[in-house]
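The pair is quoted verbatim as follows:
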Amino acid sequence: MRIIELTKETKKDILTDLLKRSPSNYGQYEKTVSEIVESVKADGDEAVFAYTKKFDNFDLNADNIRVTKEEIEEAYGQIDKELVDVYRRAAGNIREFHAKQLRNSWFDARPDGSILGQRVTPIDKAGVYVPGGKAAYPSSVLMNIIPAKVAGVNRIIMTTPCSREGKVNPGTLVAADIAGADMIFKVGGAQAIAAMAFGTRSIPRVDKITGPGNIFVALAKKAVYGHVSIDSVAGPSEILVIADETANPRYVAADLLSQAEHDELASAILITTSRKLAEKVSEQAAIFTNELSRKEIIQKSLDNYGYILIARDMEEAVDAANEIASEHLEILTKNPFDTMTKIKNAGAIFLGEYSSEPLGDYFAGPNHILPTNGTAKFFSPLNVDDFLKKSSIISYSREALEKAHKDIEAFAESEGLTAHANSVKVRFERS
């Protein structure tokens, strides 16, 4: 891995480089995605079937589009029972963590007869997209569906690509069953997003779409936003490690590569105050890369978006981390909890040498659907709130309104909205 001194110029260059990975910068695909979305919107199932034949080489139709109970049972038979138990334990951790996020409706009644409050209700239908291309991710199935179930969503619709034989990855199906998906459809790509956004004869329209995917899926989510809600327009995976001289270079290198193996656009960055550590991590990363099964992908990721940055001190390291606002942030310092208090921007923060990033990906409980491409400055991980909506409650008695009506009328009239003012004024007209 390349080793660079951290300066204002190198930080700026790296940020510019990383932002090139954003789905917003892939305009050359937008026309294709727009055509798919509009076609599905206009022609429904027929367009979905045609695109599935074109992209996945499977003759989809109304009779085979939905995954059956028998297919789910078959999937259980194809997965090692111990792995199924792992899925269930992970699901339990995820459910327990997200249950703590639940909010209750609240009401504040005052002596003057006014009642203010907030009613919290779940969305009716959630759509979950699950990738099925280069790799299948049962973990993402759990991370998307379980928060929706905890929130109380009535129906959860899942779409995922199938093979040319019409089969869905068995791990994906088992995870979906454990998590509680209500309906699963064998549709992938932008056409799946459009189908959930607008509805077809086979696939119900949903209120919100969540889940990761390739550039076509990301751009399709962007295109349908407004017709439905979405979680985010996710970019490639990324990890940033802050480490000092106390860190174990093998651990650091292993953790950096855990994200580099996702795809060629993944980003892996180490910021350290120790040049000695930097050199050892670079050496160890090269050794690990040659040993790992996805070494070609890892090497391209490191060549394009891998950096080891040497900071003058921990303050400079933290400042750079806050600017980059990484999806995953590991802190491997002498006192990681102290360093953590200075972090403002990160999707998920992992503290200490036994809290490696895959712990969050698979098992600990917090969600691994995280903001990418610097959006951790204003976005949060997927959570129960994403599947809830809040309605304000307002109820005033005559006594309460009488105290406020002149203020309301004055405010409305200052904006030139006399009908607004009149709506309050008429209630205090003298007969």
